[in-house]
Write a structure and sequence with these properties.
The chain has about 475 residues and is an alpha/beta fold. The chain contains 23 helices and 10 strands.
Length: about 475
């Protein structure tokens, strides 16, 4: 559930959780140091991110035609392509494929789009087990949590917390003390599920229109298991992930891995172009690609908001954000937390439901400096704040919402009138110098301000009065 009140409660809860603060401080410091180490040459970094930005911008500029080209080439290769305007349509498509093949269990590679869809819960409601195969995703699934980070879902937990959770919920007979022992426990369970699964689900990091190729980036090999062992593979993808040419992939792959985890390249890079062919011994018999819109076309139609779709989901903006690194991902109550979530979530949900996330920023610009594809996050935040304010003013005059907006609008009009008139301004300054310091902090006009700030202290004499007393200006 998204609401300003819940966000505020969860933020204070996170700030008052010393263990969570320590976990994030250690994890974020390590990620920032690794990223800095793999970009030692500032000039090379700027040239590469400029190239990455141009590649992504070119793909977005040609998005409709590239999507049609992708569909044509995927279909020619034997991949079945489906279109979904909403998450409900996407979930129904996955369910139809599963039911057609009498699927009872699904194994999933890491996919933020499937999280956006709420796919696990949806399949569970229809009697189909969906098991996360990525270790981080598996940990939070067992603990019934949302991902706290788009690259490292369980980054909010330390080794001891995960060990206790494994002992309580996964293997009560074993108390694993090392990461290797916990990984071995998960591997034993997941290997069995890989072989038993009727269907595999994955995300898509890049889809190449030129060749009809689906690219998956991973470190653990679970993605490769999910896409080769089950007889049916379903890939879910936001429509913005398409690229024009195969040559566009290497620069973006370098930016993604180095920005995300500080690696020169990930352990596995999978390129899927077709289902199993007659002479091949492994691979799925069917491959389906579901292209999800969910508000992306609306973003694409706006020149500034379109830049939101440049994102390659590296998570670097989160790792450097002074807000995210102190409150973590769960405070946002959204699939996409951190800076990218603050601009993406209000657009796929609504400003009414999630517009408060755009306010949760200091506008320091750290996210913009590290973004590998140069998304103007702060500009988009300001645009969303403006749109939210405009929408708020246009709410009908009702007790449920418009009264506050109308009051705020009236206050700003009065402020403008006072500051535009020298006589009114001087009168205001004189009154505040006499009574301003006696106003209690609980007054409605001051309460929200003083809840997080010190009450202003008004000088007894104005600057003009002091200047006159010093003979610095004529009467």
């Amino acid at each position: 559930m998204l609401s300003p009140e819940k966000f505020k409660r969860d933020t204070f809860s996170a700030l008052n959780n010393p263990q969570l603060r320590r976990n994030f401080k250690r994890a974020m410091s390590g990620l920032m140091e690794k990223r800095q180490a793999v970009f030692p040459d500032a000039e090379e970094w700027q040239q590469l991110r400029e190239l990455g930005s141009l590649i992504r911008a070119n793909a977005l500029r040609k998005l409709p035609e590239l999507l049609e080209q992708l569909e044509a080439n995927c279909t020619k290769n034997g991949i079945q392509v489906h279109w979904a305007e909403t998450v409900d349509e996407a979930n129904k498509l996955v369910l139809e494929i599963a039911q057609r093949h009498k699927v009872k269990s699904v194994v999933k590679g890491k996919s933020m789009v499937s999280e956006e869809m709420g796919l696990n819960h949806f399949l569970g409601q229809h009697g189909i087990e969906a098991l996360e195969a990525d270790l981080g995703e598996y940990i939070i699934q067992v603990d019934h949590e949302l991902p706290s980070h788009i690259i490292m879902p369980a980054i909010h937990k330390n080794k001891e917390q995960i060990s206790r959770m494994f002992h309580e919920k996964v293997d009560p007979e074993t108390l694993a003390e090392s990461a290797e022992e916990m990984t071995a426990i998960a591997r034993k369970i997941l290997r069995k599920k890989f072989y038993e699964a009727d269907m595999g689900v994955s995300g898509v990091n890049f889809a190449v229109a030129e060749t009809g190729t689906l690219c998956l980036v991973e470190n653990e090999g679970n993605g490769r298991f999910c896409t080769t062992l089950p007889p049916v593979h379903v890939a879910v993808m936001g429509i913005e992930k398409v690229l024009q040419r195969l040559d566009d992939v290497p620069p973006l792959l370098s930016l993604l891995t180095r920005s995300a985890t500080g690696q020169a390249i990930t352990t596995y890079f999978n390129m899927i172009t077709s289902p199993r062919k007659s002479a091949e011994k492994d691979g799925p018999l069917e491959v389906h690609l579901i292209l999800l819109d969910n508000g992306r076309s609306r973003m694409h139609s706006d020149k500034l908001l379109r830049d939101t779709l440049l994102c390659i989901r590296c998570g670097a903006c989160m790792n450097h954000c002074p807000v995210y690194t102190r409150i973590g991902g769960h405070a946002y109550s959204a699939t996409y937390p951190g800076p990218i979530g603050k601009i993406f979530t209000p657009q796929i949900k609504s400003l009414h439901e999630a517009g408060h996330l755009a306010d949760a920023s200091s506008l320091c610009g750290a996210c913009v400096e590290v973004c590998p594809v140069k998304i103007p996050i702060t500009d988009i935040l300001l645009r969303l704040r403006h749109d939210k304010a405009v929408n708020k003013r246009n709410i009908p005059f009702t007790k449920s919402g418009g009264l506050e907006a109308k009051t705020e609008s009236l206050i700003w009009k009065c402020w403008g009138m006072v500051y535009a008139n020298p006589i009114l301004y001087q009168l205001k300054s004189y009154k505040l110098s006499k009574v301003g310091n006696y106003m209690p902090e609980w007054l409605p006009l001051l309460r929200n301000w003083t809840s997080v700030r010190s009450k202003p202290h008004f000088a007894k004499k104005s600057l003009h009065q002091l200047a006159r007393e010093k003979g610095l200006m004529d009467e």
